Amino acid sequence: MDQSAVENATLFSSANQSQSAWSAHSVEYKAASVLLVLFVCGLGIIGNAMVILVVLTTKHMRTPTNCYLVSLAVADLMVLTAAGLPNITDSLFEQWVYGYAGCLSITYLQYVGINASSCSITAFTVERYIAICHPIRAQSLCTLSRAKKIIALVWTFTGLYCVMWFCLADLEQQTHGNTTVVICAYKVSRTQYLPIYFTDFALFYVLPLLLATVLYGLIARILILNPLPSDPKENSKAWRKSTNTSSSTQRAAKSSSYSTTATSRRQVTKMLAVVVILFALLWMPYRTLVVVNSFLEKPYLDTWFVLFCRICIYLNSAINPVIYNAMSQKFRAAFRKLCHCGPQHLEKPPAYSVALTYSVIKETSNGESPDHFTTEMEELPGASEEFLAGKKSLSFKESSLCKSMIANA
């Protein structure tokens, strides 16, 4: 097998197997590799499955942002199962045990998951930018149906793009003295593989990170200078209405809605920015290793460092549900409900408060779809209660006004 196949197949191929020498893994390496991969992949599989379940089974969790997070969770599950779990058998048996069909399908699924996760991150980054920096456009662009279409496009593109790996992957038998090992490697030579890898590197790592850096910079600028972009027409209507009614309760409710929406936007944006930063940091060791080895005559393939690179990749796919739980009250409550622990009052209030939420959207003119606004607003404790209290006091005044009119009549 060509040496470049070893250095570039480090996600599941054994790093200490080369054409010139072969040595068994040490007991320490086997134990560390199996335990670390089992722990990280097990945690990631459970966490990402919970993300998918809570969004699919809870109606008010089905929002544009959460759709992209479900797509990311599916991609991460694919990486953990197709790239992570084969490492366990590789460490134990020190050769490929899944046959020719397994080599082709696992290699394909591995790259589909990696590329789809990158595209999903790019998609929700653009969605955040539109929602915050262009709130008027967000009414028509940041919708649930459009998010589903974009996700379908992402998976179609990555699925078709990665078909080439069916032609590039193959089994390779190596004989070293009395030892014969079978590994899943690449057919092509080093000169043929490097253009493919650098295309992947540019499309699914460099460009998404550059785009995310620019867009999150613009988002931060908007949130710092103008926490709540709004529609001037709606603002003038709201001002005239508040002037005519002279209602202090209305003004208080509107002020509270402004503050709540601005704070919740920051929370959601911070959470998604952390996901992007971790994606950049945890993929960096492996990406750097392959780039550096591409220009070295003798590649650097230290067994423990390659294991470290693998664990970073699996950790990137496993850590996102932990971030959601730590930074999103809505996801935290949904996870607790799914596990049947903690308070069981996640479901939305009756239709009265749903209609109230829509009226608040129109009054605050945040320029987002009702689903999108709900996602952000419900990140904060007591947000719904504040609006509900404001609505109740308005209803009381309205009823008092009706009574006085009847009495005068």
TrEMBL record:
Composition-biased stretches (Low complexity): 245-258
**Keywords linked to the UniProt accession:** Cell membrane, Disulfide bond, G-protein coupled receptor, Glycoprotein, Membrane, Receptor, Transducer, Transmembrane, Transmembrane helix
Q: Does the keyword Cell cycle apply?
A: no
User: What does the record say about its membrane topology?
Assistant: Multi-pass membrane protein
Subcellular compartments: Cell membrane
Instruction: Mention any one GO cellular component term assigned to this protein in its UniProt record.
Output: plasma membrane
Q: Please report the stretch or stretches of sequence annotated as the G-protein coupled receptors family 1 profile domain.
A: 47-324
> Is the Cell membrane keyword given for this protein?
yes
A Pfam entry, by short name: 7tm_1
Q: Where are the transmembrane segments?
A: 31-56, 68-88, 150-171, 202-224, 268-284, 304-327
Identify the CDD domains for this entry.
7tmA_TRH-R
State one molecular function term (GO): thyrotropin-releasing hormone receptor activity
Give coiled-coil spans as residue ranges.
Answer: none
Ranges where the record places region Disordered: 232-258
Lineage, top-rank taxon, reads: Eukaryota
- Any Gene Ontology biological process: phospholipase C-activating G protein-coupled receptor signaling pathway
What is the protein's known function?
Answer: Receptor for thyrotropin-releasing hormone (TRH). Upon ligand binding, this G-protein-coupled receptor triggers activation of the phosphatidylinositol (IP3)-calcium-protein kinase C (PKC) pathway.
The UniProt similarity line reads: Belongs to the G-protein coupled receptor 1 family.
Q: What is this protein called?
A: Thyrotropin-releasing hormone receptor
Q: Which organism is it from?
A: Astyanax mexicanus
